[in-house]
Amino acid sequence: MNSLFIHNVRLFTGGEPVEGGLLVRDGKIAAVGDIDGADAEASIDGHGGWLLPGMIDVHIHGADGYDLMDGTARSVEAVSLACARTGCTSFLATSVSSSLEDLYAMISGVAAAAGRESGARIAGIHIEGPYLNAKRKGMQNEKYLRNPDISEMEAILRRAGSLVRMVTLAPELPGGMEMIAFLKERGVIAAVAHSDATYEEALLAFRGGASHVTHCCNGMRPIHHRDPGLVLAAFEMPHVSVQAIVDDVHLHPAMVRLLYREKGADKMVLITDALQAMGLGDGTYVFGGHEVTVAHGVATLSDGTLASSTVTMNEALAKAVRAGIPLPDAVAMATRTPADLLGLPNKGRIEPGADADLVLMSESFEALRTFVNGRQVFPC
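Below the sequence we write its predicted structure tokens.
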């Protein structure tokens, strides 16, 4: 099918939704607004639903019982389908701290699946760790934590090619600042988290090329009036964007509102940080070498440490709105902002020429249909 007309929808094109339709030709958005799609090969009546750009998750570890660290294309495919079910059309496959061999296996699994996905597309790999501070490790396995090693990263990049889009590290570790400069020079986003960096150390990192904060406020020195830490440094650097796990667990709604006021919709990114429990619910799982218990949707280690999330992108969008963020801005934080972060100018937006990555969503934030390059991938 080379052309598709989606009509009777409320379109999110950057501001408040507007009634109209959208024409897709050859996987691209051809026209938007009050248009006639009579010559399209197929048409869909949206029954007044919202038509959003496909959401983009830059931080996800697993879903539906599958862990991306399994190192199999099957796990990547399962996550791709789970993402599509929630209105997400692109994602960064995200690692946890591990041995180099296990990271290589994860990279191989992603590479084997890339370009063959049945659901959401792989936008690349986000390497979270192992260059993290044990003091702020969260659920990261301490046995694998180590100082930044440029020769090791060179080997990782040789193995992964252009798949690596983001690396999260603690800049205060020996070699951290050098690693940030190395990543920036190679076009890889240097993100900071699981860090005990002071305000001053964080400013040095941001001035040295770091541009993103992973799961902001979690896994880092907290804000204190005499020790402002990494978060306040990020607030003061206009080029720095932040991730937010909006699941009513990792961030209080008041903190969600503060992040929004300080960074705005163009520098705040909604993520899931989901482990394999996403889509399955409560139970016991093995994640990052730990036993993780999920109870009432909250994932923790035996000592109560939060261990990733079970939230989905459409749920995160709903919770952001309930926290007080205007709907158009919350949509941008799940679509255009992560696309811009990753340098994907044809994604995360509804406009002529953009990729036809779309989600038809109800007012209750249920993903009804998801399209990737104009092809319906959910329901499939």
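DSSP finds ten helices and 21 strands in the chain.
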